[in-house]
Amino acid sequence: MGVNLEQLQSFVSVAETGNFTKAADQLYLAQPTLSRQITALEQSLGAPLFHRAYGGSTLTAAGQALLPLARRMLADAESVHRELAELAGLRRGRVRLGATPTLCISLVAEVLNAFHAAHPAIELHLSEHGSRRLLDEVAGGELDLALVTTSDATPPGARYALSPLLVEELVVISSAQAPPITTGDAVGLEQVARLPQIEFSSSYDLRAATDAAFREAGLAPEVVLEGAEMDAVLRFVERGLGVAIVPAMVLVDRPGLRAARLVGASRAPAGAATAALERTISLALPADVAPTAAVEVMRRTIAATATAFAARSGDTMRIAQR
């Protein structure tokens, strides 16, 4: 049965107007074209749909049975067309993004602000956890994409793909109201170990990295507070409670903090602590799953925001080599 939407629309218009001429005008068609569509529809269905008369046209029994079905089919087609157009124009959709706590208060905050301003109707979900759990959630289909910290030791996954995004240094922060902790622009691990230090919760990837750096250098830092979350650490440092080792990214637009670049310990074996002094931020996506339009736009927003962050950070952050 070769029925198409144009034929159904012509049929409904004639049924509603009761007149072929009026229906043709309504549809911006020539009357012979409309008449051919109705005739083709009747031939496909094997039954006449109208009683044609000089004064107008009325529905046959077959036409009366078809009218509600035709209206429903046209409505369904319009609904599908509208939904696809909305998805293409990002007027509907959902993005499930994961990120580590340190990224949530820096890069992710900027990403979500830019994305929501451009696409306010897209539903956003955020999962804030350590990198290992986020990778598991991406692999399990619970997240569309995630911002994680990676290293050479990060295990590869068959169900997720990693794309390096940024490489940033770890810096030592202190209160801008207190005297500088160094006369230069960098400070060594030995000096940092002797300063009162605020340490992150053990759930932070950053805590594991700094613990490893001190351990490999044979140092035991002086800790005044342990187990804090990122927001609390930054506030405590601003108040002068101690210093902290943080990613350079969190210093953007924070005038209450002063930063010094962190360099390896002179007593450590050559190269032993170097890897712990910077971290790689990567974007994880499910492997072999095509992203939706909304997820692809989110990916591009993340890449653009990362580039802007790198430009604002001086030489403490750089775009990762892919």
Describe the structure.
- This protein has 322 residues and is α/β, with parallel strands linked by helices.
- The chain has three domains: 5-88, Arc Repressor Mutant, subunit A; 94-165 and 281-312, Periplasmic binding protein-like II (D-Maltodextrin-Binding Protein, domain 2, 3-Layer(aba) Sandwich); 168-278, D-Maltodextrin-Binding Protein, domain 2.
- Helices cover 42% and strands 24% of the residues.
- A hairpin with a 2-residue loop joins strand 1 and strand 2.
- It is rod-shaped and about 100 Å long.
- It starts with a helix and ends with a strand.
Question: What string gives the helices and strands in order?
Answer: HHHEEHEHHEHEEEHEHEHEEEHE
Distance between the termini: 54 Å
Binned, the helix content reads 40-55%
Q: What count of structural domains?
A: 3
Structural class comes to alpha/beta
Q: What is the overall shape? A: rod-shaped
Q: What is the CATH architecture annotation of the largest domain?
A: 3-Layer(aba) Sandwich
Number of helices: 11
Briefly, what CATH class of the largest domain?
A: Alpha Beta
Radius of gyration equals: 32 Å
How much β-strand is present in the residues? 15-25%
The CATH topology annotation of the largest domain reads as D-Maltodextrin-Binding Protein, domain 2
Instruction: Say how many strands there are.
Output: 13
